[in-house]
Input
Amino acid sequence: MARRRELLHWVAVHALAIAASLFFVLPFVFVFLTAVMSDDQALTRALWPRTWEWGNFRTVWETPGFLTWWRNTLLYAGLGTVLAVGSSLPVAYALAKFRFRGRNLAMMMVIAAMMLPPQVVIVPMYLFWSRQMDLTGTLWPLIIPFAFANPFSVFLLRQFLLTIPREYTEAARIDGCGELRTLLRIVVPMAKPAIAAVALFHFFYCWNDYFGPQIYASEDPGWWTLSYGLESFKGAHQTDWNLTMAATVLVMAPVIVVFFFAQKAFIEGVTLTGVKG
Amino acid sequence: MSAAVHTLGARRRRAALRTLGFLSPWLIGFSVFFAYPLGATVYFSFMKYDGFTDPVWVGLKNWRYVLFDYPFFWPALTNTLWLVAVMVTLRTVFGLGVGLLITRIKTGAGVFRTLFYLPFLAPPVAATMAFVFLMNPGTGPVNTILDRIGLGEPGWFNDAQWSKPALTVLALWCIGDLMVIFMASLLDVPKEQYEAAELDGAGAWARFRYVTLPNIRPVVLFAVVTGVIATMQYYTEPIVAAKVASGVIGGSGQHFEPGYPEKSTLTVPQSVYHLGFQRFDTGAACVVALVLFVLAMAFTYVLMRRGSGFLKEDD
Output
């Protein structure tokens, strides 16, 4: 009797799980199937490709600009991540391990900056980058601020550094280690998983960013990113859903590939933001 | 004695300098990229400034314009509040539901977890374009299937009634972040509490209500707070959906009707962009930006306060 109930429970749960999978996976499937349809078929309501036009991917790949967008996105995400993690680490360490007056205030500043919608300050920020710095029309207004700590990275790194017992840093200090050496030699090796998670988050944030490149780089196609360029791609191919979906697949693919290689760091990172936050 | 005091003072000064050194990236970053532009936003909200001639003091003129004459402000505000109410609630409930489901799966849990998580990774522009295609009334697979099984065919992103629900479906598809944090917190609930409740004869609902929910309350709160913050900034999905669905897209400088269809997807951040970067009305853009600022801080404050109450209850 109990076994029968257990079996029924198993069937119910897995039926529900399969139904949910359809919701999560079918959009990918239909996007892919449309991406390999011929131009004519993409104009119909067909769900399954009659011929498999793998050349669509090549057409997208060879679109003028596509490789430039790739390069720009990598520059923005790569350099931005290195700068943000590098500059946020000492700040997070000081907030987690130093005792000083104004520490709570400094932490409040981090949280307030995290909560602040970027659109609140975008108008004066744009004027600053165009009038004072003359850097609009490039991605530099997005990359340079990351050299001055990123509130979200500071917050996450601090949450993790708090979990490192004081004894480790105290011991290093007694051995005559300066704070900077303690941070680099003792703390960083212990915090590797957290640093990897924060770096991944940051990389994906930049990779996905649309607002920033739209504001600062839209005036020069030579500085567009994949996210921004993808939209213009639809503009150039008004009714060709097949090519647009092929471009969509090519923009989604790298993220998903990276995910499969770094799945553990990802899941750990998300729980770091939530459960310990 | 005086030497000792001197070295103590010197040591303190050294410690203060060291702290300052470690914090300096953030002190500079906060001043230049947060405090200064926030002050400048307040300043410009009282100025007439087109970016070319010098700013001129106009008092409350920009505020009057935004509140009474700018046709996109109130639709943007009501849309943003609609999204905060509906999207955040549904995402939290759905995320918790999917998290519960994942913890109950016995066979293939890892595969299911990956499949459920994957959409969260899709870049928002790509995901939005995919959904505008999937739900387009002409050739979209969603309406094709709805038609085949004999259901109605909504206009989705092309119909003012359906555009926000369509955006909500997209937001539910990208539930991976919430699913993972709910899953982790559900696994942290002490097993003994469930066993004790079962011995007391508690049913499934009672166990959820009196054991699960109190234990995961902080995470529910976290989901709501971050959800509200993200929804206040909701920009990419609605603007890309409006551009793609209306067929007006392309490089910079192309103008399209904000919030297509019929202002139904216009959000507050979008109207900052519209005023500041399409109409070059710096003053009015800063007024809307300040409304957004006040709204974001007020929501955060209320939720945090209610949250601390929640947390105390558990003690």
Remarks:
- Chain A touches chain B through 93 residues (CB under 8 Å).
- Residues 65-207+255-274 of chain A form a domain with the MetI-like fold fold (CATH 1.10.3720.10).
